[in-house]
């Protein structure tokens, strides 16, 4: 391997580890908070304590909830694309194009570190 490609590989491995670590931390945070959010939603739907302000609160927060769900679905698109490229490498160009991703600058960026 050339010295330049050795630098690229070293930097890629570091960046990839950092990316995977960041994703793992985010997933762990979701794993902790999603069950709580579901429990809270079930509470407001069932309203076992008959709190009269619950319906008003639900209505007031529906926009925030919808935005959060939409953001999660946006991330899910990338998870699906990642799996598609992992499972079917021949689809890489289609996946890159569909998601507006360009890898052309990565060689230079990896040299820069």
Structural class: mainly alpha
Order of helices and strands: HHHH
Rounded to the nearest angstrom, the radius of gyration is 21 Å
Shape: elongated
Strand content: under 5%
User: Considering DSSP H and I runs of 4 or more, what fraction of the residues is helical?
Assistant: over 70%
Total of helices:
4
Whole-number count of domains = 1
Gap from first CA to last CA: 18 Å
Number of strands: 0
The largest sheet is: none
- Rounded mean pLDDT score: 94
Residue ranges: pLDDT <50 for 5 or more in a row? none
Task: Outline the structure in words.
The chain is an all-alpha fold and 113 residues long. It has one domain (3-112). It is 81% helix and 0% strand. The longest helix is centred in the first third of the chain and has 44 residues, at 3-46. The mean pLDDT is 94.
Give the key terms:
81% helix; mainly alpha; 4 helices; elongated
Topology:
Layout: H1 3-46, H2 54-87, H3 92-98, H4 106-112
Summarize the structure.
This protein has 113 residues and is an all-alpha fold.
């Amino acid at each position: 391997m050339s010295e330049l490609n050795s630098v690229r590989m070293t930097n890629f491995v570091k960046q990839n580890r950092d990316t995977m670590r960041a994703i793992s931390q985010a997933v762990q945070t979701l794993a902790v908070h999603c069950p709580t959010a579901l429990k809270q939603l079930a509470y407001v739907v069932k309203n076992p304590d008959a709190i009269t302000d619950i319906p008003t609160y639900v209505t007031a927060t529906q926009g925030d909830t919808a935005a959060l769900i939409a953001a999660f679905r946006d991330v899910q698109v990338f998870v699906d694309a990642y799996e598609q490229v992992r499972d079917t490498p021949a689809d890489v160009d289609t996946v890159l194009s569909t998601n507006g991703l360009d890898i052309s600058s990565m060689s230079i960026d990896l040299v820069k570190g």
